Give the backbone structure.
Amino acid sequence: MDGAMYREILANNLLPSVRALKMGRGWVFQHDNDPKHTARATMEWLRKKHLKVLEWPSQSPDLNPIENLWRELKVRIAQRQPRNLKDLEKVGHGSRTNRRFNPSKRTPRRAAAKKKGAAADQKTSAKAALVHTCPVCRTQMPDPKTFKQHFESKHPKSPMPPELVDVEA
Ligand SMILES: [Zn+2]
């Protein structure tokens, strides 16, 4: 956006808004010191329209109340995870029917990451359960009972591994 575009936005929106809100003349316009705000032509435009502008310290965007709104907008858009311009347009068009903003709600990406983590955990525990390896044929088995049954049927002539002697098959 440049100064000309900014002035056009002001022209099309600022005074109509002031009228719509019935603010009269007892108001002061506030914007920060962004170059398009402080451009000579913009300052001249504001002066011609007899608009009072609040003096604003430099480099202090956080003091600008609109920044809180921009942040809220960014958070809500990020929750919808648009991947391209088309997605972004959908987010914009769907915004009126959006569910209420709920910061405690997990985003889909985090939920997916958690799901992935759970799947990995399952895989790990499944692997951990396969701790019984037959010393003869290297088959892995989930529990000692299965192991003993395996050993007795497959390797009846081999000496029983000591950890299987007391297992009830
Ligand atoms: Zn075996």
User: Anything to note?
Assistant: Residues 134, 136-137, 139, 150, 154-155 surround zinc ion (CB under 6 Å). The helical segments are 3-20, 35-38, 40-48, 65-80, 85-94, 108-129, 144-154. The mean pLDDT is 79.
